[in-house]
Amino acid sequence: MGLKEEFQEHAEKARTLPSTTTNESLLIIYGLYKQATVGPININFPGVFQPTVVFERERSKWDAWKAVEGKSQEEAMSDYIAKIKQLLEEAAAAE
User: Fold this and answer.
1) Dihedral sign, CA of 95, 3, 5, 38?
2) Theoretical Cys-Cys bridge with 31: which of 1, 41, 64, 80, CB 3.0 to 4.6 Å?
3) What pTM was computed for the model?
4) CATH number of the domain to which 52 belongs
């Protein structure tokens, strides 16, 4: 199985993560997913005139993607796969 196929498989598995997955972990996988599928961040910093809750959520997502901006798409895919595996293992151990 190639890297892209394994990435897609783990993207599907990510949908099965428990609701107890931390927001920090979700932001990490969001940033890696965006870097792997889109590449370097291509959106502007969220506008400060949005409602506070929306601004904070969008800024967190923007920050997560920006944090992995230097990774190649292949490296982001590999890191994403590793993070999903880790989170699934942690969830299984907690049961």
Assistant:
1) positive
2) 64
3) 0.90
4) 1.20.80.10
